[in-house]
């Protein structure tokens, strides 16, 4: 397809259900003032599906569950909670919501957007932890942006991505 | 040009001298562990050409000067210094380096990379300012990344970009 004629490919949907949920959740979060990145590795080596930073530095982590099987096989989601002020699961509309624990947030999303079905309780991070998570987020986002903007460049600090 | 055949356009040079200096400087900084973004507006409404964050949260600001005329017409560069630990000018190799003040850093770059010709003195930010600059940087980088990755989405918070 010629340059300038690829409008249809530019708005294509992500290739997977998890990718669709991620895109819609990032749009939802941005509308709420939280700018997010996907797949951020935390200091405990767990990888959060989405981490997002709010206007006052609030940190949200979202774990995406593309299916019941995906949810049931996950024994590690509680490991994310010490790294955020608010924790959410994000699922599609066909997911049985009663499976989601009641003491975490719940987002329903598709490839185009989403909604916060249940707000997450706030468990405020201590200052040093918040600082460390924000720094990691900042450097990761900038590194990824550079990789996208500068196709001739590849980051050598694999630890960041 | 067909998809998959645009290798040459992917590695094309930026369209301007300032764009070339920016790209090379971002590559240089990344090699030093500083991940940067271009055109970050500061709390005083000045727009830094490049802001970058180091591994321990160090903040560098780089002002790009594409020509002597560009340098001479700039009366505002000192306004960036209260927002960073290190301040640099970045110029191309043909720029007369003696024009650059001796008490700031100097980078020489082209579209492919660069070098720190003179290290910037450190003027350490206070904690609250560093926190605010890092937060702004984090949200800006993530917002830009989302705009690149999600062509169907546009940020409505113009203040961020």
From TrEMBL, chains A, B:
* The protein's name in its UniProt record: Transcription elongation factor
Q: Please give one Pfam family short name.
A: MmcB-like
**Organism whose genome encodes this protein:** Hyphomonas chukchiensis
């Amino acid at each position: 397809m010629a340059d300038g004629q690829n409008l249809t490919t530019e708005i294509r949907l992500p290739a997977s259900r998890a990718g669709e949920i991620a895109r819609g959740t990032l749009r939802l979060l941005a509308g709420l003032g939280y700018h997010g990145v996907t797949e951020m590795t935390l200091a405990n080596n767990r990888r959060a599906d989405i981490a997002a930073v709010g206007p006052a530095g609030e940190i949200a982590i979202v774990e995406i569950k593309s299916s019941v099987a995906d949810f049931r096989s996950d024994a590690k989601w509680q490991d994310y909670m010490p790294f955020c002020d608010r924790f959410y699961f994000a699922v599609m509309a066909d997911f049985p919501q009663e499976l989601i624990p009641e003491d975490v947030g719940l987002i329903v999303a598709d490839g185009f957007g989403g909604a916060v079905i249940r707000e997450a309780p706030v468990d405020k991070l201590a200052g040093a932890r918040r600082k460390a998570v924000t720094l990691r987020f900042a450097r990761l986002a900038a590194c990824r942006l550079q990789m996208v903007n500068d196709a001739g460049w590849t980051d050598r600090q694999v630890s960041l991505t």
